[in-house]
Fold this sequence. Notes:
- The complex is a heterodimer of chains A (131) and B (185).
- Chain A is α/β, with parallel strands linked by helices and 131 residues long.
- Helices cover 31% and strands 37% of the residues of chain A.
- The longest helix of chain A is centred in the first third of the chain and has 23 residues, at 2-24.
- Chain B has helices spanning 2-18, 73-83; strands at 22-35, 40-53, 58-64, 69-70, 91-98, 110-122, 125-138, 141-151, 170-181.
- An eight-stranded antiparallel barrel of chain B has the order 1-2-3-5-6-7-8-9.
Amino acid sequence: xxxxxxxxxxxxxxxxxxxxxxxxxxxxxxxxxxxxxxxxxxxxxxxxxxxxxxxxxxxxxxxxxxxxxxxxxxxxxxxxxxxxxxxxxxxxxxxxxxxxxxxxxxxxxxxxxxxxxxxxxxxxxxxxxxx
Amino acid sequence: xxxxxxxxxxxxxxxxxxxxxxxxxxxxxxxxxxxxxxxxxxxxxxxxxxxxxxxxxxxxxxxxxxxxxxxxxxxxxxxxxxxxxxxxxxxxxxxxxxxxxxxxxxxxxxxxxxxxxxxxxxxxxxxxxxxxxxxxxxxxxxxxxxxxxxxxxxxxxxxxxxxxxxxxxxxxxxxxxxxxxxxxx
Lengths: 131, 185
């Protein structure tokens, strides 16, 4: 009888521990996430410009890897954003980095991956990092 | 001939005046707070876009809901999937008008406070509001700040009764943008 009681208590504690773990789980790092799409900055921007709803359907929340030329880097409020060149002078593919990366400079070719959040004037990806 | 020169000069002056009247940033910061006795929840996005046209006094903001980051993964998931339905409504927007844009001179150092009236769209629902925005200009840096308070219920966001004590009915939204001059438009 006592044995059953102990088993129940132990199982209960494990359950509660797992619950607390899930509740407090921090956001997953990009490095451990599988890349869903690898494409060019132009193709990604074009799909949002042509049919935003279809592109949202396809790309939102997905991990996307893009290789392109850096037109601008900007650090604002401690967050660094990398602007990749597209055929459109006013719109970019913007990767917001999870951590500052001073190795990325304007004019360079880089490969970045991040989570796609959608399209404003630009396609915006967050929690990104250099590959 | 003189006529042509004068009209040319007039056009040039007009062009010079409108030049540099637009300002923008694509890395605006929007933070929101929900404060209850049980817990405080905070989320931040650093990728809001905004354009301001000083010649007309029009101001626009837009932010992607999925760009908000929370401390806890589960909170972010609930926020996107259950409350904001961010796959269906990916953006929040504000389109407004500075009520007295002549009071604000973004080319001269100073602190300018001005009322802004416009339409705020969250979760696919539009609501008109008036708020106060502060522009701080110093050494060519332009920082705009604004504080909004919105009711969750006004935007048709349903909070399940299990967690209704964990999420404030009124959410505080802080908006901050470091504007750059828009030279290519």
